[in-house]
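Posted in: Structural Biology > Protein-Ligand Complexes

Title: Requesting predicted complex, D-mannose in pocket

I'd be grateful if someone could produce the 3D structure tokens for the following input. Sequence and ligand are given below.
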Amino acid sequence: MKMTFRWYGENNDSVSLSQIRQIPNVTGVVGALFDVPVGEAWEENDIINLKNTVNNAGLELEVIESVNVHEDIKLGLPSRDKYIENYKTTIRRLSKHGIKVICYNFMPVFDWLRTDLAYPLKDGSNALCYIDSVAKSVDPVDLVKNIDDTSNGFSLPGWEPYRLAELEKLMAAYRSITEENLFENLEYFLKKIIPTCEECDVKMAIHPDDPPWSIYGLPRIVTCRKNIERMLSSVDSVYNGLTLCSGSLGANRENNIPELIRAFSERIHFAHVRNIKFFGDKDFHESSHLSKDGSLDLYEIMKAYCDIGFDGYIRPDHGRVIWGEKARPGYGLYDRALGIAYINGLLEAIEKENR
Ligand code: DNO
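-- Reply #1 --
Done. Output follows.
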């Protein structure tokens, strides 16, 4: 498997490429063009610039997270075909410059959702947190504003200004969309783009919904084994694959992550590895990657990846904010690098045990 690290670009990240280059075992970064309005095709020159910047630092750029999907596609509006054509153009251009995997999601309006971006932990660090009763009692507009205000001045992926500006309008547009409708719209999208992916050798890797249940009455479908099976079989091609995010799927206690890794096996193209700690049925805070600190067993998760012979891309996911770092919530250097060191240790031990 190829160890990677998410990076937000030269002007938008507290972490530099040279720092990433020094983390043991990291061969590449996962990047994106964050300024392109959703729905527009990515310009080839911008892709080339990003790739050159990364390559010049001695790192690879083979995974994009994310090429976002326009809401009209998720809503199934007539204008979706135009946006799907743009998406295909982006796939072709990315493929031309060595991109192998595109991570995306199909969550209406919100990408990931937390009620607190700096929940204090006992050790003096802080981490992202979700408390269901808080989410339910807060108006989504206020929650979004609060998230914006507490992000240490960094823009957050999934909370781009365009989403915030249109929040109420978008929420209203989804009122008539059921989970079944959303599924049909995802299938429509996949049927159109997967042939292009096959032609270009670019694998799509859908990110699960985070948290994996409906919020504010919005439909959510990438939540559990049954739904992921349906999504994968709707276009039965290896190019129609999955980002297996342990923390997102793991927030539903019914999802057994090692079992899902074994079940989806060659359809997993990208592994997001992180831990969460439950303190209520649907309440959790993120924790260090260490099994002991969270509710997920990272040893069992890494063992499952080794057992299936996973040779895709992997990255540590959110980290805590530690050692006084000023960083984008979840995406500082220190705790993610500690996460990698830990994953490296697990991998070496598991691989040697398996010999
Ligand atoms: C949050 C991330 C998500 C993820 C997208 C993928 O930190 O895990 O924003 O990148 O859902 O499209």
